[in-house]
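Batch job 17 of 40 flagged for manual review because the log was empty.
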Amino acid sequence: MRLRSYRVSVVTGLLLTLAVVIAAPDSVVAQQRIARIIENAPLYLLPDSQRSPLLFMEAGVEVRVLRTEGTWLNVTVSGSQWGDRTGYVEAKYVGPVSVQQKASPTTLPPRSAEPATRASLPESPTPHAAAAATPTPATKASSAAKPAAPITPPSEVSRPAITTTRLKEVKIRGYVTDMRSPTDFDIEDYRITRDEAFTLDFENATPDVTFQLHDVRVGVELEIKGLLNEVTGELKAKAIKVDLEQFKSLEQTAFVARVPEGIQLLDGSWAGELKADGQTIRVTDATKVLFKPTKREKKLAERATKSAEQPEGEAFEALRSLDQVTVGMAMTYHGKRDRETGKIIAERIEFSSNDLDDGEARMWRSLKTTVTPAQALKPGELKIDHAGKYKLLPDQGVQDYVASLGQRLIPAYQRDLAPDDPRKIPFQFHVVIDNSVNAFATPNGIVVVNSGMLELLENEAELAAVIGHEIAHSTHEHTWRQQRYHKKTRFGIALAGAVASAYGLRGLADLTTLVNGAIVSGHQRQLENQSDRIGLEYMIAAGYDPREAPAVWKLVASKHGDSPTNFFWSSHDNHSTRRSYLMNELKNNYRDVDFASLHTNADEYARIKAAVAAAKSQKRKLKVS
């Protein structure tokens, strides 16, 4: 009897062992490839960093490496509240892979303990399980069943956690970049769908402009409030706000970078499509195309006619030939944007010579620049009157690199002006020591790039997007035009006095305040969008891939989140606005560009980026010594 009992026990034990082997085949494999995450890293379903991640893994998390695919590793990670997750992580986030012997079946923990193991890696709670990070009664029961290996409460976990994203309330403002239906469309990387409790609201509404949900099109600017699923990128909209100002008549001034093409004079009226200001402008037989003499030209005409009596107002004449239009002229167009095509249907176009206004010339002179070279251990200094003092990065190679890039981005018509021409902007380019991600330009062409910006970017084309945008602020006279826009409330011509009187700040004498957010009007938004459009033109003319421009804003968002910023004068709500606007510009106006002929220069930029870090490190050492 005892012998039989013993045999039954042996057979039962063998069967139980076999059951464990069959139930957990991974546990009996002789070897496994294990690695650790060395830096917080996203896990993707496919080897594509443009997708929304499945989850985020913190440094220290163990992963099982299945295979290598180029610069990606296919891995399985445990600890997720949804069980083991398999996906792709970039190899740069993973430490050395080691081959380890797996435990024998006799050392395997009971299967009932698996939930306990996963529970010790808490995740952010999902919207459907707010207490997911707290051990459930079943989990506690498992703990009690095995007192020798108690479950560590989440608050006491020493192992790094794997965190999945959760739903959160967000507000974004941006331009529709792709359409499936009026209730299912994209803004940048967000997929917008409609929530059941949905409201449609309007900003700047007037009786003459109407908008309904079916009017949503690619290129329409919207503000979305709702719940964002950070795993899928889906934003379920609870409210959509539409600024109807975008559908009203607009007026914009740009400068002619090349002789106009695409329109012709037939039977006394102009017709065709004109590429200008980074946009497509449609001219019809109802469009008034005019030549407007400047004040100087008007005075010359008065002297020629020797007439003391002249009619009030500015004289306009019909444009007779495109020969009257020369590079560098100002072009002001009036019209409405077509909702279907995004093109401007022009009602009126005015061309005129661009003379430097006396007040603008005084503004230029008020922004006197002084560069003090480095002396011994003291770094060089850039001083801009009414803007401030800045420590120059102590690496002449980096300074020359940025200056050379800037010079290539200056539009040809500006570069070709004679040195003594009053309209020639005396551009300068400087890199200053400042960790903030920023850049700015003064009206007289002093472009300042922070070292933090250079350290964030990943290639030369992205830097070209930054500097091209800033050059456009100067070439298109945005500071001066903004002051003239508010001229009824301004007193004086000097920069500090003009800015101060515009906003009731009598003690203001700092250009940086103007650049970094004093202006938040709709007019300033037009100038910001124009700098984006013109900056793309400058990039292409200099041979850079303009598709890298939206990537700048993705990098900024990765560092600072999708939040308000003063970067690039921006008064928009978030980075999605800038990136989605640029994406639309590329889609609408640059479909025919041969991108294969353009470059990014990532390798050369990597060398410069390393030099920036080394120069900053050297400065710190000198300061300590």
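Reviewer: the log was empty due to a logging misconfiguration, but the result itself is present. The mean pLDDT is 75. Unflagging and moving on to job 18.
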